[in-house]
Amino acid sequence: MGEREPMEGPMQLLVAIVQSEDADVLLKRLNAAGYRATRINTVGGFLAQGNVTILVGVQDDQVDEVIALIQKTCRTRRSYINPTPLGTEPIHLALAAPAMPLEVLIGGATIFTFPVRRYFRTSGPGAAPDTYEAPRDSHPKPGALAMNLVLAIIQNEDVDQVTRALLDAEHRVTRINTAGAFFRRGNVTLLIGVEESKVDEVVNLIQENTRARGGAETPAHAATLFVLDASRTVRV
Predict the structure, then answer these.
(1) Which end of the chain is less congested by CB atoms within 10 angstroms, N or C?
(2) How far is Cα 227 from Cα 225, in angstroms, rounded to an integer?
């Protein structure tokens, strides 16, 4: 199945944390169903095992289908860990009674969904982007400090130029090296916290400093952007 049609209705950004063993199969199934996804290799907290965070942008009526694909693919497993605390001195280990490995259940998936305020998929300078904007009545009340998080997925070849342009315009940028199906090649995810009134400025800077690459079989857009609401912003 090819790519789905441009987004036209209310959107959600799904953030799914899955075990590394399931990630490749899940991405293949998402691609086969026509969904575009980005993969971030991460580390789990309890077992400190490698896992994968997958980002999928979908319309509201597609959320259940994507969750069903994740449920079908990601399964739980039993694993064993050493219950001895890290940093225990060797002499204490010698005096302690032998500890049996602790059996734990791992795997499955943890899924978060975030309403998307605005969405852009650009093809480079001069090209009109695919766009979506949430209904105006869902915007913050007048007088509130409207802060947005722009999550921009950009090809490796453009990231340095985009980052320089954003920094020159005094925007703060966090860079995460990613890979995956949005461009089906190595890419970078940029996180940009910005006031709502400056979102268009950020979008224009990204559009002017990226370009589309890819052939007929693997088309690639220059950049894919999600604009998410920040319900609370604290700087320390």
Answers:
(1) C
(2) 7
What are the pLDDT digits (tens) for 4-54?
555 567 888 999 888 888 899 999 999 999 998 998 877 654 444 568 889
d(CA 162, CA 164): 5
Q: CATH assignment of 11-110?
A: 3.30.70.120
At the topology level, CATH places domain 116-230 in Alpha-Beta Plaits (3.30.70)
The DSSP secondary-structure symbol of 85 reads: P
SS3 category, 97: coil
Helix ranges restricted to H, 169-198: none
Hey, what are 160's tokens?
A: 């340095």
Closest CA to 226 of 61, 131, 147, 116: 116
- Is residue 116 within 8 Å of residue 17, measured between CB atoms? no
